[in-house]
């Protein structure tokens, strides 16, 4: 049997390796247009920022490695021009010699990846406007920095790559201006979590222009001005365009292979396309959501490797099948870590879920053992009690928590299940009630025990509409005097029982403290004393203040 793979990065090489493990006799060939194969695309910003010194650390496996270890023939600088699915043949061009030849296959795996979105604006393809998708492009950015010694850069887009490049260029002493067309940074987060990232970026002296977009890049021969839709002009020595990627599917489309709703190659759980013996995997292929079961396009190296392994298994007689993804992502921003999995609040609402939201602000371990605060936003389904998604912004221990949440959501956990997890505890690693457990407790109280939460945004809407509500600040007088919700009255927790007699039990009451715990205690007292409707502000005054720019 002859297995041919188009593409030699994460998906393609994973498919080849798995196919070889299953079948020692198959003939396996990979064609790729690039110079480098099997590289770590996620490591490129750190190579540019000199955190990774040696280029070879990003490209540890070359064609000789695959031939020696897997008996797989890898042809670099070979472009597949055409796929003839009827004859099971490819037209291939050697980019170094310009020779064109035909290659047959029994099983074909398409792993052509994704490519950067290049905006249709003047100057978008000038030599000092960079797009970061492969090692060669990273080399060009490094060479430009070494040769021209730039003092400033504009980075367009605030997704993973945009913010990772922000950190690495800033560490090289380059002044950074971020431009984001949305009114927030980190488009993958809800706005009430993005504010924490924005505040941190300001503390690092990163310039930000939000709610604006680039319409022209001016300058000859090199771009030196970025013109925005608002009319604002930013002087810059070079530009990083990080506005997203799109699946590289032209080859597949021309061959009659069906595309999905998001423009990537439509595949089943076996990675098979609509054409027999043709499979697809990696950033060019469609995933689906574990939660909604709907198509989902989240191009990440982790998913590409998984899909590649399944494709390689299927083309060599195996039975592995794809089980979907949650769209989990994590990135580092200087000392901060930002992570997300599952549905955001806005995605959950768009899918028709009746959501319950909590903001849990807790240290990753006891403060006496150098614990640092993290903010966990969790989204749950009010009707089933199932956890739908989590976003975390913090400094240490974020990766550990998000992975626990990923596992819980993957296996359909309800919020009350989180409390029963027997998580590892010792002061150097966690608090006695881990932030994961505490998140489950907060949501369980809200969904199953009548201790309802209200977000800062929801409270502000009630106040703006003139609703007759009582807002109680349960903190001590000093904290209240420093800052409080405008309409709040101050009744410290220790006085709630006595003062409750003076309040109207028929009115809606909202309690809060600094981060939520004492507000919940005040809420409990009022509910137990017969108050009809009592909410606690999610994340307390700390979260409320963060949302009030």
N-to-C span: 63 Å
In terms of DSSP E residues, the strand content is: 15-25%
> What would you say the CATH architecture of the largest domain is?
3-Layer(bba) Sandwich
**What characterizes the major β-sheet?**
5 strands, parallel
Total number of distinct structural domains: 4
Number of strands: 30
For the biggest β-sheet, the strand order reads 3-2-1-7-18
CATH topology of the largest domain: FAD/NAD(P)-binding domain
Q: Gyration radius, to the nearest Å?
A: 27 Å
Helix percentage: 25-40%
* The first-level CATH class name of the largest domain: Alpha Beta
Mean pLDDT: 96
Shape: globular
Helical/strand content category = alpha/beta
User: Which spans have pLDDT < 50 for at least 5 consecutive residues?
Assistant: none
Question: CATH homologous superfamily of the largest domain - what is it?
Answer: FAD/NAD(P)-binding domain
Enzyme class: oxidoreductase
GO molecular function, one term: CoA-disulfide reductase (NADPH) activity
EC number: 1.8.1.14
Keywords: FAD, Flavoprotein, Oxidoreductase, Redox-active center
Protein described:
The protein has 549 residues and is an alpha/beta fold. The protein has 17 helices and 30 strands. Strands 3-2-1-7-18 form a 5-stranded parallel β-sheet. It has a 5-stranded parallel β-sheet with strand order 9-16-10-11-12. The protein has a 5-stranded antiparallel β-sheet with strand order 21-22-25-24-23, sandwiched between helices. Helix 1 runs parallel beside helix 8. It is globular and about 90 Å long. It starts with a strand and ends with a helix. The model has no long low-confidence stretch (mean pLDDT 96). It holds the Pfam family Pyr_redox_2.
